[in-house]
Amino acid sequence: MRRRLPTEGTFPALLLAQADSRPDAPAMREKRYGIWQTLSWSQMLELVRDLAGGLAVAGLARDEHVVLIGENRPRLYAAMLAVQSLGAVPVPLYQDAVAGEFVFPIVNAEVAFAIVEDQEQVDKLLEIRANTPRLARIWYDEPRGLRNYAEPGLESLQALIEAGREKNAREPDYFAEQARRVRPDDVAAIFFTSGTTADPKGVVHTHASLIDRARAGARFDSLDEREEVLAYLPPAWIGQNCFSYGQWLVCGYVVNCPESAATVTIDLKEIGPTYYFAPPRVFEGLLTDVTIRMEDASRIKRWMYELFMRLARERNDAAKAKAGALGRSLLALGDVLVYGPLRNALGMSRIRVAYTAGEAIGPDLFTFYRSIGVNLKQLYGSTETAVFVCLQPDHDVRPDTVGVALEGVQLRVDDDGEILIKSDGLLREYYKNPRASAEVLTADGWYRSGDAGFLDANGQLRVIDRARDVGRLRGGPWDGAMFAPKYIENKLKFFPHVKEAVAFGDGRDKVCAFINIDFEAMGNWAERRNLGYTGYMDLAGKPEVHAFVAECVQKVNADLAADPQLAGSQIARFLVLHKELDADDGELTRTRKVRRGFIAQKYRVLVDAMYEGRDAQYIETQVRFEDGRTGTTTATVRILDARSFPMVTRAA
Hints:
Blueprint: H1 11-21, E1 26-32, E2 35-40, H2 41-58, E3 65-69, H3 74-85, E4 89-93, H4 100-108, E5 113-116, H5 119-127, E6 137-140, E7 154-156, H6 157-170, H7 174-181, E8 187-192, E9 202-206, H8 207-220, E10 228-230, H9 238-251, E11 254-257, H10 264-271, E12 275-277, H11 280-296, H12 299-314, H13 317-322, H14 325-346, E13 353-356, H15 363-371, E14 376-380, E15 390-391, E16 404-405, E17 410-413, E18 418-422, E19 429-430, H16 434-440, E20 447-455, E21 461-466, E22 471-472, E23 482-483, H17 485-493, E24 498-504, E25 511-517, H18 519-528, H19 536-540, H20 543-561, E26 571-576, H21 596-602, H22 604-611, E27 616-624, E28 630-641
Parallel strand pairs: 1-11, 3-4, 3-5, 5-6, 6-7, 10-11, 12-13, 13-14, 25-26
Antiparallel strand pairs: 1-2, 8-9, 9-19, 14-15, 15-16, 17-18, 18-20, 20-21, 22-23, 24-25, 26-28, 27-28
């Protein structure tokens, strides 16, 4: 029997409701030293009470901001709830950011308190202390490596818990009284955007906006307390926050925190989540692993895999339902021999609903997962909309759309093709940035998404690109043709051997592209052909690799030629970049979005060489190593011409 979703309007109230109705039910699990440890709802409430009491003793006041930095950990989730229970505002930041990236949000949000996971994060905050004078107190969860630190204001999270326990013993009603004062329209959190083109913006969300969208998404897919979720993406990203925090408290399901980033694949298999989210790059990586394994498999296994995958691809969802006895028998046999073992190997045996978002997912990739029985769907949303804008219904899943407007959402496309959104899940404002707020929020309550797209005849939304990035070619045979760089880049990344791509062409006479190969997939391909290499740069410079990538580019051009609007965006020239694009080098955001403008400036000599018709270009590039040191790499990058196709015209 399904339990009705709680109706409380704040996160502390939702916690109290779950702990009251299901005190002994598991709320979270954390893997430590190879063993899963479970925290019940009553234990989570007790931890939140103690943390809230400790923060009150430390002087945290209503409306103040508290930075939280770390991986998904029960104590950090409890700290977020504790901060909200006192009417203060958590500000989660990306744990893989370098120290300097913390300065702007901490100063902008006037942060005095920080709660972090471990020594790594403590060191980052201590490094920038001179630039963040208001940051007075830092608490850490994991004490390893911090025994001899004697910095003022630095203390363990356990000490904060103990101080709170003493306060709650003296004032047993304190927590409940504070939690009752929190209102649905109070600010619940500030999420800083990734800052693709400028300083990050602090997106202000209320309890009401986040809970409204969490409930709408839960109702759409009939989520309840029986779901199992693996929380492995950055908590500072609002998508992970919605799935493992907002919907966790709304539905009461179990959130599982892996031991580390290195154990996620193993932990995924151990937990067997029923509700799963991953960006396309994760699904691409998993499929790349399958492809590599099948290349190394025996001939009979490869034959069986290809046979049953072809059978599954030929039968779409509708056809499967209408398949005859023979077809159903073959699919059932395929489930025993291929599809089931694949789901098990990927840790997806129990998945009931799986979502991807953030970037387009290729039709082949989409078809693969749905063919093996994974209910993979796409959703559309953003930090400013509390994620849930469009979702795909189970009965109508298409690779080229992002679904229908969710309950409570209105969509509109303006004359310039920009998608406008209205819902109760919209941001209140950008923190201390009224100009940016006015640019995206209209007087009559619509949010300008910045995305270009359209609604098809079935009411499903198709997103083409960022509106500001959609341009036009100028000069040449395709003068005036539409240029949609993200659309082209995503088509290139549909190939498992391509990890990243950057397209150029706005205001130019043709489209050119940078391509990053996937080192693991391309390396396996090379090894199977006895092609030796010493590292990424060496592999990226191989003529055989260039020929392989040229075939991928050619296939993309053939697809583009079949689209009348984008036929002019076929790639004329390309190069395989000598280094991997990296967030630490400023080339990607922390959510792995390409910083196209920055890349164009940094590698201007390569861009110019492509458009000037050169066949090679020498370049020196500054890089940042994992230990923070910087260095320089040099390379002569080969530039290749790509085969293009005439536009395909269809008969009326």
